[in-house]
Amino acid sequence: MIINAARFVTSSPSLEKTPNTELHEYAFIGRSNVGKSSLINMLTGKKGLAMTSAKPGKTMLINHFLINDKWYIVDLPGYGFAQRSKVELAKIDKMIKDYILGREQMTNLFLLIDCRHEPQKIDLNFMQWLAENNVPFSIVFTKLDKLGKTAGPRNVAKYCEKLLETWEELPPVFLSSAEDKRGRDEILDYIDQLNKLPLLAEEPEKPETNNQINTETMDKKPEKTPEEIKAEKKYPGAAIDAADKDHVTPAEVKERTDVLDGPTDPGQE
Ligand SMILES: Nc1nc2c(ncn2[C@@H]2O[C@H](COP(=O)(O)OP(=O)(O)OP(=O)(O)O)[C@@H](O)[C@H]2O)c(=O)[nH]1
Ligand SMILES: [Mg+2]
To answer: Is 107 helix (H, G, I), strand (E, B) or coil?
Structure first.
C-alpha cells in the first residue's frame, strides 16, 4: 500500500473523547519505549508525525492520525512504565483498556515487543487479557536493527516458542525496525487486506411486513448472519485467505532462523 497522506487529527484523554468516525482504525500498544511512535512514523514515512523520545513515557494520550483519508492509526500510551505514580499508572491502564474494549472501529491492535527481550510477565499478562477479551491483535517485534541478522530472528523464534508452550496458536507475527524500515510492506499490506473487511457488524434486516413473496431474493445465497460478520471482525486474520498472507508465522520465523544460523553478530547490544 502506498501512503499518500498522513496527518495528526487529535489527542484524546479517554475513550469518550475520541473522535466520532466510521473508518477502520489500527492501534499500537506495548511497553513504554518499545518503539510504538517510531514505528508509526516509519509506516507513514513521516518522521515527526508521532512524537518519540529516548525517555520512556512520552505518549500520554490516545492519538489519532488519518491515513490516505481512508483509515486511522492510533498511537496509545505505553503500559508498565515503572517511574509513574500508582495513580498515573492506573489512569493510563484504564485509558488503554477502555479504548481497546470500547472502540468498535478498532480493526486490529498491533502489540509491540522489543526483539531483544525475553518474554516478560507484563507482556504475557497483557496478551492473555487480549485473548480473554477476544481482541483481534498481531505481534510486532521491534528494533530488529539492534541485533544481528541472525540473532534478531533467532530471538523472535525463541519468544514464539515460549508462547506456544501455553498458547495453542499465535496471532500474526511481524519483524520490524524503524531504522531500516524492515516490516513496513508486510504490515501495510496486512492493514490493506483488513481494510477490505466490513467495519462493523451490520444490523439484521427487518423481516418483510406483508405476505408477498419477494422473488428477487429467492435464488440468492443467504446473507451472512450478524454473528458471522462479528466473528470475522473479532478475528479478522481468519477472514484472509492463507495464500494471500504476507506476515510471518512462528514456524516460518524458525525456518528462516535455522537457515540463517551462524555466529552471533558481535555488534549486538
Ligand atoms: N535502533 C532503533 N531504535 C528505535 C527503534 N524504534 C524506536 N527506537 C528508539 O526507541 C526510543 C523510544 O521510541 P518511541 O517510538 O518513542 O517509543 P514508544 O513506544 O512510543 O514510547 P512511549 O511513548 O514512551 O510509550 C527512541 O529513542 C527511538 O529512537 C528501532 O526500530 N530501532
Ligand atoms: Mg510513544
So the answer is: strand
The grid cell for 57 is: 513515557
Nearest CA to 236 among 172, 176, 167, 163?
Answer: 172
Answer left, alpha or beta for residue 221, where phi above 0 means left and psi between -120 and 50 means alpha.
Answer: beta
Q: Which amino acid is at 99?
A: Y
All residues at 6 or more sequence positions from 217 whose CB lies less than 8 Å from its CB, including other chains: none
Question: Dihedral (C-alpha) 39, 83, 10, 34: value to the nearest 10 degrees?
Answer: 10
Q: Which of 111, 105, 156 is nearest to 130 (CA)?
A: 111
The pLDDT tens digits for 213-243 are 443 434 444 455 545 544 444 433 333 333 3
CATH of domain 6-197+234-260: 3.40.50.300
The pLDDT of 165-189, averaged and rounded, is 96
Ramachandran area for residue 136 (φ above 0: left; ψ -120 to 50: alpha; else beta): beta
| Mean confidence (pLDDT) of the chain | 81
Computed over its alpha carbons, how large is the radius of gyration of the chain?
A: 20
**CA 143 – ligand 1 centroid, Å:** 8
Choose among 23, 14, 204: nearest CA to 107. 23
- Cα of 209 vs centre of ligand 1, distance in Å, is 58
Choosing from 28, 33, 43, 147 the residue with most ligand 1 atoms within 8 A of its CB, the one to mutate for a pocket test is 33
Query: What does the pLDDT look like over 242-267, one tens digit per residue?
Result: 334 445 555 555 454 443 333 333 33
pTM score above 0.90:
no
